[in-house]
Structure formats: structure tokens, C-alpha cells
Task: structure prediction
Amino acid sequence: MASIVSNLCTGCKLCQKYCSVDAIGFDEATKKCVIDPIRCTECYVCIRQKVCPKDAIVPPALDSFLKQFQHVLSDPMENHGVTGVTGRGTEEVKTNDVTGRVKRGQVGICIDMGRPGMGVFLRDAEKVAMACAAAGVELQGEEHTPLGALMPDLKTGKLQDDCLDYHLLSVIVEGVTTEANLPNVLKALDKVQHTIDTVFSLGLILRTNDAGYTEALDCLEELGINYPYRGKVNVGLGKPLCDE
Result:
């Protein structure tokens, strides 16, 4: 983890204002700031912005795949080595007009887990991924989304055991299901949301008819879910790069 050199720290607490997950505390006994190794996401905000006037914060040795994974997904300035995408290393299925990963009759699932100020432990990402897989979502592999690299078996959504206690700023669970199966996926997500210690937002990627309508969302009213009033819509003004 990133650490604070004790003999350089003056205890000014300036660094605490910049930490996106409140991982920097203050030791009353020593009057020095300290970084919680469990909560730190290695986002490098404190390092990249040079927030310490004494340069007391030093980066860790990213000497393992999981430490590199944690840092790359938490630092939006980094480029993911497999997907070649910055941010969280994924183009996300919501860019479907370019990638064409979601076909007609399918629904793209994009679950954005964690937020600045909260973060997400991979054990909670596993719970959501496994709930999706059990509900009939075909999870995406590492060629599309970094989380797939931690899944030995995409059919179950189970992550490798040694990654579960890693804390990230955010991570995305992605997959595809059929329009007919969407109600089952929504029910599974409604159930699993009560078992995790973070937040997530769900994006649904669908193809509509020429009138902008899709029957797939008719199930929302039956499930007691408010119809979305915000969305990203490709109205055909551009030139999609994918084949129909």
C-alpha cells in the first residue's frame, strides 16, 4: 500500500482532505497521519496531486498482479494492459453502437459498483457477479472487462480467492442476457443488493425499434421498478462502427 514516512509527516492532516475513500487517519499518540492498508485503493490521488507539503507519502511496490490490478482499476490515469482502455479498463457494453457486443433480442448488463468515498471490496463484486451468472447472465471475459481476468470460470462468476479482500475505487460487472430473461436478472440483483457493503448502479443496453420502443422494459412495472427517465440513446445521426 501507499505509506506515510513518519519522520517526514508533520501531522497537518492536509492529505485527509484528498483521500477518496477516507483511508488516511490520524494517530493521536504519535500525532502523525497513517494510511489504512485495508481501505486504501492505491488510486494515487494523494501521490499524483502531490498533496503532502513534505513529500511524506510514498507509493507502494506494485510487485504482484493483484496490486497492479487494484491500482490500474482505481487510478483513471492508468491504461489497462489487456483491454488498452483507461479509466476502469473497459469500454463497457453501453458503447454498443461502436462495439456491437449486444445483438437484437439481447440485453447488455453493466453494473457499476463502488463510488468515491466508499469504494468496493472484490468480495462484494463476486457476490453480484455470481448472482448474475446464476440468473442466466453470460459474463464478459478479460478481453472486454478486467474483472473477467479474476474469474477462473465465467459461468459461475466466482473470483479467485486471493483477491477478495482487495479494495478498489470502483469496478464494473458486465455481461449479456436475453430480453426474456431480464426479469430474472433484475430479481437476482434486487436480492443480492441487501448482502453487500457498497452501492451499485445498473445500466441496461438494448436495441429499440424505429419508434424508440422495446418490449423488454415492460417487465419493470410488474416488478415495481420505476421506468428510467435518463439514458444514452444513439438516434442514428452518427455512423456506428459495428455491423448489425
About this structure: The first strand starts at residue 3 and ends at 4. Helices lie at 45-48, 65-74, 96-99, 122-134, 182-192, 219-222. The mean pLDDT is 88. The chain is about 20% helix and 15% strand.
